[in-house]
Design a protein that fits this description.
Blueprint: E1 4-8, H1 14-33, H2 52-56, H3 59-75, E2 78-82, E3 85-87, E4 90-99, E5 107-110, E6 113-116, H4 117-130, E7 142-148, E8 152-159, H5 163-170, E9 178-179, E10 185-186, H6 190-194, E11 202-203, H7 211-231, E12 239-249, H8 260-269, E13 272-279, E14 283-288, E15 291-297, H9 300-303, H10 305-311, E16 317-321, H11 324-337, E17 345-347, E18 350-352, H12 355-373
Parallel strand pairs: 4-7, 4-12, 12-13, 13-16
Antiparallel strand pairs: 1-2, 2-18, 3-17, 5-6, 7-8, 9-10, 9-11, 14-15
Helix pairs in contact: 1-3, 3-12, 4-11, 7-8, 8-10
Length: 380
């Protein structure tokens, strides 16, 4: 939330109040020094003390001074505004593509603890968009979200304001691995999953990884967004300086109608760079009663063989993230690669607050007139 700033647009007007306050002070002093009725001698009145009403007459010049100050403050245009706000004029359109198959619930190291892959991805995603300790954020970019398992889904279109995008990411869940006897999705524990048949579960056909379809859908989203902006572009409209897709998965393409390599070529044909992140350990493990055991070490070149074929036509890059820390470093690299000099203007959004001073000033003025004509009325 932006901090609030309170200020006066014309603070020099308070200087005009100084002569008026001085005149009011001299008027009160002169009024005290002269008597309303002249007596030949006031010797007998020297011992008399002022009455409570006479002492309370100081309220009238006080109210007059407050009314004067309030009117001057209102004329000085008090206002409250947000801190400087960026008007987006140009930036990069980035479509984030995330795998939501059930394998994304597997644990990986991040922050010195074991956490689910999907939770790590959410945290790093938010830091990439909004900014964190290591990432500056993408305040001037259009960012959208596409997810995939067997089928793709556009969870959030490309938006300049990222609140809805962050909400979509935080609400993201994986596909259920199995269905119960009523064909309802179930997220069982590992123990239940190992006894799937005994539990009456069957494999969920939606639990697959259609990387090519997800990439193709992201390309279409970027093309559509650019066409929409071109149709509605005016002199001060938003301009896309570049287009990029950041695809994250922990597996291989095993479903869908589109080959990932063909989808990568389609992205390149539309001037879209593709960054491919494989988020998994570089080994196959098996859980035993003594803990997790490494079954087989995997070759990095073999793991990244198809991802490199996907990104090569577009001039993108492939990454292997073996932990949450490595994933964060990869997003830092992509953030540096996808930066542009953004033409922008800045302004403060203000709300006029003159009524904060005008209304009390009018109340003081009316109260002064009322008391002067009633309780503190003097003759002449």
């Amino acid at each position: 939330m932006s901090p609030k700033v309170f200020e006066f647009h014309d603070p020099w007007l308070f200087l005009l109040a100084l002569p008026a306050l001085a005149f009011l002070y001299l008027r009160v002093r002169r009024r005290r020094g002269s008597a309303a009725i002249l007596f030949p001698s006031v010797t007998r009145l020297r011992g008399l003390r002022p009455t409570l009403r006479q002492r309370a007459r100081i309220i009238l010049p006080t109210l007059q001074a407050l009314a004067l100050l309030g009117l001057v403050a209102a004329a000085a245009r008090p206002r409250q505004g947000d801190a400087r706000t960026v008007i987006r004029r140009e930036g990069i359109a980035i479509q984030m593509v995330l795998d939501r198959s059930y394998s994304m619930v597997k644990d990986m190291r991040y922050g010195g603890a074991e956490r689910r892959r999907i939770d790590i991805v959410k945290d790093v995603f938010v830091d990439f968009v909004e900014g964190g300790e290591a990432l500056p954020g993408r305040k001037t970019d259009l960012i959208g979200l596409t997810t995939f398992a067997r089928f793709t889904e556009e969870n959030c279109p490309l938006v300049p304001q990222h609140e809805s995008l962050i909400t979509a990411v935080q609400n993201l869940t994986t596909v259920a691995p199995v269905l119960d006897r009523y064909n309802q999705p179930v997220w069982p524990t590992q123990a239940q999953l190992s006894r799937a048949r005994q539990q009456g579960f069957k494999q969920n056909p939606l639990n697959a990884t259609a990387i090519g379809d997800g990439l193709q859908r992201a390309v279409l989203s970027l093309i559509t967004a650019e066409e929409d902006l071109a149709r509605g572009e005016d002199e001060g409209g938003y301009k896309i300086k570049g287009k990029a897709i950041i695809l994250l998965t922990d597996g291989e393409n095993n479903a869908g109608e589109i080959d990932p390599v063909e989808a990568g070529k389609y992205a390149a044909a539309n001037d879209i760079r593709v960054y491919y992140i494989l988020f998994r350990e570089q080994s196959e493990t098996q859980q035993t009663i003594w803990g997790r055991k490494v079954v087989r070490e995997l070759d990095e070149d073999e793991l990244l063989k198809e991802p490199r074929q996907v990104v090569e036509p577009s001039g993108g890059r492939t990454f292997l993230a073996r932990s949450g820390e490595e994933l964060l470093e990869i997003y830092e690299d992509i953030d540096r690669l996808e930066r542009t000099n953004v033409g922008r203007t800045e302004y403060r959004s203000y709300q006029e607050k003159y009524h904060w001073f005008l209304i009390p000033a009018m109340v003081c003025a009316l109260l002064c007139v009322f008391l002067g004509e009633t309780l503190f009325r003097s003759i002449p």
